[in-house]
Amino acid sequence: MISVVIPCYNAARYLAQALLSVFSQTRPADEVIVVDDHSTDGSVAIAEEHGAVVLRTATNSGHATARNLGIARARGPLIAWLDADDYWEPNHLEVVCGLLDRFPEAAVAFSRVRLVGARQGTFGKARCDRPSILFRDAFCYTVVPAMSAVTRKSALEQVGGYSEAIRYAPDFDLWLRMSRHFRFVSSDLVTANYRWHDSQISAAPHNQWLSVYRSRLAMIDRLRVDGEAELAGQLESLLAECWEKDLSASWDRRRLDDLRFYASLSPMLPHKTRTARRLCRLAGLPRPLVAAGSRLPSPIRRFLATFPTRRADGGDPNANPLI
Q: What is the pLDDT of residues 192-237, one digit of tens each?
């Protein structure tokens, strides 16, 4: 039995397309639950018109609370997730739920997704055609596109579901906690569509990025409490690498606001390399000085010359739009 859970907040423009994509699946869902997070538009009416079960929060509480309500209400052992502004290809449940049928040792299955709207391309960095432990990957980036995920309800309940204290990027925190205990499996097929638009949370990412770093630090603290000090130390070093890469990428793209944001995280981080310290000092320079280029005094120009002119990891800056 498959339960589809769709958290929704003021998504009347897109919800009908999302629901039609669910009801057009080659492998039908057994129930479709829309959790309305106190919308002020016509979302509830659209959900009811299409025959979905509708749950409503008393106040606008965030995606984590809405998703947990969906988990509690779901009757099926498999929960397929879809955001109200995204939509599936007709074979989505057949492909992704089929992975969990084929591999009972896996708790999470997902596919690649297509970016539509303001961004184009595909997303799905983690590739594991066999059930795999993705703990370190999940520490570094969002391994699972939420709109293509299918999870076993029992595994979600075992980790306590979504953390309702996290308003931004609760999915990153969930996948990180689940990856510590369970195996993930994925398909390289594109079976879901991720709509990029101005009104979504991802369009203003600093709150999301801060939440990601807090989730990483919380995991390190949890490992120490559980007596896994060696692994916690390894993740502290990995955290420093992630932070330096984020600093460098912000500088390489000349996104000074992002550079200053990442520099502001410095007090949270236990390890700082020389390059990271230099980038933090650079972030503290007045914007006109950085923009002045060749008119800068020679000592500052020499300092700026110590930084690369392309991304440190050589990657596509749009490769992971979920973080």
A: 999 987 665 555 689 999 999 999 999 999 999 999 999 999 999 9
Is the distance from CB of 81 to CB of 11 less than 8 angstroms? Answer: no
State pLDDT tens for residues 66-102.
Answer: 999 999 999 999 999 999 999 999 999 999 999 999 9
Q: How confident is the model at residue 3 (pLDDT cuts 50, 70, 90)?
A: very high
Domains of the chain from N-terminus onward? 2-202 (3.90.550.10), 206-304 (no CATH)
The answer to whether the pTM exceeds 0.90 is: no
**Phi, psi (deg, nearest 5) at residue 90:** -60, -25
3-state secondary structure the chain: CEEEEEEECCCCCCHHHHHHHHHCCCCCCCEEEEEECCCCCCHHHHHHHCCCEEEECCCCCCHHHHHHHHHHHCCCCEEEECCCCCEECCCHHHHHHHHHHHCCCEEEEEEEEEEEECCCEEECCCCCCCCECCHHHHHHCCCCCHHHCEEEHHHHHHCCCCCCCCCCCHHHHHHHHHHCCCEEEEEEEEEEEEEECCCCHHHCCHHHHHHHHHHHHHHHHHHHHCCCHHHHHHHHHHHHHHHHHHHHHHHHCCCHHHHHHHHHCHHHCCCCCHHHHHHHHHHCCCHHHHHHHHHCCHHHHHHHCCCCCCCCCCCCCCCCCCC
Q: Which of 300, 304, 257 is nearest to 279 (CA)?
A: 304
Single out the residue of 133, 201, 152, 143 nearest to residue 173, CA to CA. 143
Answer whether 113's CB lies under 8 Å from 193's CB: yes
Q: What residues have CB less than 8 Å from 310, skipping those under 6 apart?
A: 252
Q: Is residue 314 over pLDDT 50?
A: no
CA distance 212 to 318: 18
Cα–Cα dist 86/202, whole Å = 13
pLDDT of residue 310: 42
